[in-house]
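Quarterly update from the structural biology core.
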Amino acid sequence: MSEIKAAIFDFDGTLVDSMYVWSKVDKEFLEARNIEVTDEYTDKMRSMFFETAAAYTKETYGLSESVEEIMNVWLDMARTEYAENVRAKKYAAEYIRYLKTRGVKIGMATSNNPYLLKPCLEKNNMNGLFDAICYTSEVGVNKSNPDIYLYTAEKLGVRPQECVVFEDIIEGLKSASQSGMKTIAVYDSSNDEYLEEIKSTADKLIHSYREMLDELQY
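Predicted structure, tokenized:
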């Protein structure tokens, strides 16, 4: 993979152990409205960007709140966790710093929100590591489409074939692969039910960034 000029990282579940936050928010938000969280709802929410998820929730359950009100409630519920409790995956920052010493450009492609992401990066001493941070809200489609990865590559000034994408969700791995990018799946227990499909889709599966540091692949 010596031809790689840029690495694009997802955020939740890939760089940080944060998937529990959204499960907690979903559960507490719906239970406060006497609604049970279903597997179908959780599955559909997985790869949606923020506004689409709020619109889907409002429509699905006929909520009286506006989409904007739902988003604000979610953000307020999640911000404390991201700012105080969410931690980076072990060796993630070290690996990114290693890539930067090799001249590899570093991007982030996320469905998250700057309001949550920025304090979390600061808490985990990861500010300044990224040459470009891109959000699915900027491209208007979720990670079932390759747009966010292509957009991030464009921001980094590299061709898709010169990128490697680090992702934990199967939708993102498929889209990144279809766009011509190398893919490395980062294990997160929230995706255990998709693990076999993840293995067959990604070019490589890692359980820790220590594996990448040990192998010195770039």
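The longest strand covers residues 105-110.
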